[in-house]
Amino acid sequence: MIERGDHHVIDEPFSAVYYLGSERMSDRYPITEPESTVEHVLSQVENASTPLFVKDMIHHVPAKRRSQVATMGHHTLLTRDPARAIPSFAEVWPDVTWEECGYETLAEFATQLEECDIPFDVIDAGDLMAEPDTTLAAWCRRHGLPFDPTTLRWESGVVPQWTRWLDFHASAIASTGFEPRPPSTPPTLDDPRVATLVERARPIHDALVARVATS
Fold it and tell me: 5-14, 22-31, 114-123, 206-215: lowest mean pLDDT where?
């Protein structure tokens, strides 16, 4: 979406609320940013240039505010094979929590959208990486956007939207596009705690993927 150039892009604005704000839901960091509040983020979103694209994790949003977020724009839920996503997360934060993995809250949000008759998309990250042109062309059609295959390539390097969480963007920083990847064996799960998180997330991920054809 950054490469398209036709949308204002905000990356994970609610992450500061979750980790650093006065309403924080995690004690991972000892510092507090008083300005990192839900109201501040909503003001950013509401006053941003349009059209606007926001990427975030729904568990970063306080539960009592998710119904408000649900009514803001169109939603695409991105889910990734937990056998790949959670070990990758644990490489950066070995003590990653179940909530930080995000699967349960993402599924709950999907149900919330359904109950409110709010349309949404589900994309499997595996499909996105294997067939980026097909996956994104279909996504653009559903949202009335022109598809430009040249936006699947970009110059490597840091973009301003990633500054806060650079540790999690090492692969993206080095990348030059969506690279189709051949099937491979997921990483070995040597850490029993991580293996438990993966097994707990697997049926949730599978159920989300099953919604792809109907959502």
Answer: 206-215
Token reading at 89: 């997360």
Residue 173 lies in a domain: no
Q: Report yes or no: 156 and 176 within 8 Å, Cβ to Cβ.
A: yes
Count of structural domains, the chain: 1
pLDDT tens by residue, 67-100: 999 999 999 999 999 999 999 899 899 999 999 9
Asked if residue 61 is part of any domain, the answer here is: yes
pLDDT band at 23 (very low <50, low <70, confident <90, very high): confident
Q: What is the DSSP letter of 153?
A: B
Residue 62 falls inside a structural domain? yes
Distance between CA atoms of residues 138 and 74, nearest Å: 15
Cβ–Cβ contacts within 10 Å for residue 86, how many? 29
CA atoms within 13 A on the CB side of 130: 9
CA–CA dist 54, 64 (Å, integer): 20
Q: Using 50, 70 and 90 to split pLDDT, how confident is the model at 170?
A: confident
Amino acid (one-letter) located at 91: E
User: Can you list the alpha helix ranges (DSSP code H) found in 51-182?
Assistant: 66-70, 82-92, 98-101, 103-115, 125-130, 132-142, 170-174
Residue 92 lies in a domain: no
Domain that holds residue 57: 1-73
